[in-house]
Amino acid sequence: MNNSKDNDDQFSSIVAQIIPSDFDVDLIYKAKNTALFAAKRKFHWHFVRATSENINGHINNDIAQRHIPRFVMCEVIHSLKKFDDIARDSNNQGMPIGSYESDQVGMYSVDKGRYNINLIQTPEGLPNHFCKRLEEDLAVFETAKSKVKFENDLYVLPRSKSYTKKPVAAKSRRFIEAIAFERETCKKLDPRQFGIYSAFCTWKDFSEDVIKERHFYEELVDDQFEYDAEDSDYGDFMELALNVQNTLLERPIWGSKLKVDREEAVDILTKGMAQLTSIQLAQFTLMNGMHQGGLFLPLAQVLGLNSYEKYIQWKTDGFQPDSEEEQGLRYEIEIIKLLGELGEDID
């Protein structure tokens, strides 16, 4: 009994003091051994779930996190509100109707104006005051959408330019709406603040110009060739690297017992990466540059050969969950993933 009380006291301390202080989040909901926290950041919502589990007398405290771009949250809530007046079968009370189909979001409607997130199950939905907070951006969301115009077969955000002064325009209305939302919430667009606009600039300014030059691929090959595949145990990464090469390249250029001439490797890589869409190239560029992702790990992500959960695990290994490094990586990855979703129909 004392051990049980000590465990409860420990979890209560974690919920009341440690997590709010370490992660700068507010407690939203608490059950006996599970608690949900959240905070609204400049560009995203940050959710933290804490759980405590007794496994054969050993207490396991666990932290899970989710970073949801504010634009995406608005889409979610806007979509779910459409289901508020749908009649419910008596057998469906409390079940997820109007679920937003995204593993990263996992929001659903419980009752009129009440929402849940699949990080935690609450009997009646998240508290009213928090659900109202989730709806706060909806007016800005609608205003942002109204600012997008259709001109010359492109959706355009008037009075906005990329870093190199190109129009903020694309074939995807949703892409431009996301940038318009960022402009409305931040009052101006700044490529130095990493968000969907900054990602757009990478796509529009870099992927359409610099990435076409041969020296870009030469640098990628030179950097990869600095790693000796014979000297180290790369474990799962070596298997992934070979999978990427077998999928994208006419033949592998790096690996155990492989000897490929540098210029030939550049030719093979250039030809292989030419198969990627411009959006995939932009995603690759962001992961390669911002996360020092190298050659094969970013390619694995854009090709769908590696889960983003595994990517996060590899890139955050060694960081504390509440550290600025891990928080930054998790947020950046969500934006890079969103870039892929927004640009699905562009190329």
SSE layout:
Layout: H1 2-23, E1 26-30, E2 34-40, E3 44-55, E4 58-69, H2 70-81, E5 107-111, E6 114-117, H3 128-134, H4 138-147, E7 149-151, E8 154-161, E9 167-170, H5 173-186, H6 196-207, H7 214-225, H8 236-248, H9 262-273, H10 278-290, H11 296-302, H12 308-316, H13 324-342
Helix pairs in contact: 4-5, 6-10, 7-9, 8-11, 10-11, 10-13, 12-13
Explain what the structure shows:
This protein is α+β, with helices and mostly antiparallel strands. Helices cover 47% and strands 17% of the residues. It contains 13 helices and nine strands. A four-stranded antiparallel β-sheet has the order 1-2-3-4. Mean pLDDT is 88; it is low at 87-91.
Low-confidence stretches: 87-91
Strand order of the largest sheet: 1-2-3-4
Give a count of the beta strands, DSSP E runs of length 2 or more.
9
Oligomeric assembly:
single chain
Distance between the termini: 63 Å
Form type: flat
Output the helix-strand order. Answer: HEEEEHEEHHEEEHHHHHHHHH
Strand percentage, roughly?
A: 15-25%
Helix count equals 13
Radius of gyration: 23 Å
Summarize the structure.
Helices cover 47% and strands 17% of the residues.
